[in-house]
Predict the structure of Nitroreductase domain-containing protein.
Amino acid sequence: MEVMASYTLNELMRVRIEEPLVCDLLLEGTSVRLPDTRLLAFLGGLTEPRDEDALAGLCADATGWDRERCRAVVARLITSGVLRESSFEHPLLDEAERWRKYGWLDALILHCRTEGQPYGDVVDAARPSDPDAVLRERVDRHGPPSFWKHVDTDHHVALPEPADYPDRDLGEVLLARRTHVPWTGVPMTAPRVSRLLRDVNRPLVEMRRRAEREYTTRPSVLLENTYGDIETYFAAFDVDGVEPGLYHYDPAGHRLSLVRRGDLREQVRTAFTGQERAAGGSCALLLSVVWERHMFRYAHDSRAYRTVMTILGQFAQRYLVALTALGFTTFPTPAHLPEETDALIGTRRFEESGVYLVAAG
């Protein structure tokens, strides 16, 4: 006697309430559209494995459709992977289940939805696109996002001639960087701030200016504007030559633009989850991401969320090395409270988000 195959729901699937409904099969990296919202009741009622005939009956009860139509729907759901044989176990399921047990379900969804997408903007991509053509159409339709941020303030601090670095070997500098050690006590001065901000942001300025010059004739230059989505805010706590307060750094004009006056140690500490060292030094650098600049370059490619976080880490490392070379102890942290960070730097986090802090002292 032939044993009828039984089927159950895909073990790792997300349903998006859109028009039409969409099932994201996370381990397969595919999505399936459902033609009718009544199918939600059908899928929700599938609590144990059933054969195709029983599934058609369950579908008919949930939707009110006739059996023949329901059999066709069930067949399509099996073919698409929304339903699969109960004896099948995806080879990645055990590892994925471990993420869930650790309470990382949201991270697992992001991880699955942003991996395995074909690259079309790199040399020798398996499915190459023409970045110039794609971005030219986008530029013609919308215009590019602004390349530079300008803070509405009358108080600007022109940074002085940069101080020289101490005479130290690069290898010594790299080996000297530590996080959980006492502050060195080296005084932070405006010339040292000037050296720090100018050197760290030099490639950012070069990339943005090239993108500004060339994007109309070669739109793909926007993809080369690697640090173009990052802004730096400078929190002065005890800096000789800079009044206490929070400033936005204008890399094009090499100046600080006042955002908030006063001793903001407590606000910085609170925004970065109460960490004492976040505001325990003489200053802190808050790095933010302007989302539209990044999304404009990588529209319809949510994998780029990973990319911008990687780039942000690269940029923060430039600050860490430069500060260490100047003789300071550093403390980096991405742990922050979004609303408090928004309030501190005056942003709306779905437009621009403070993400990373580097304290120094």
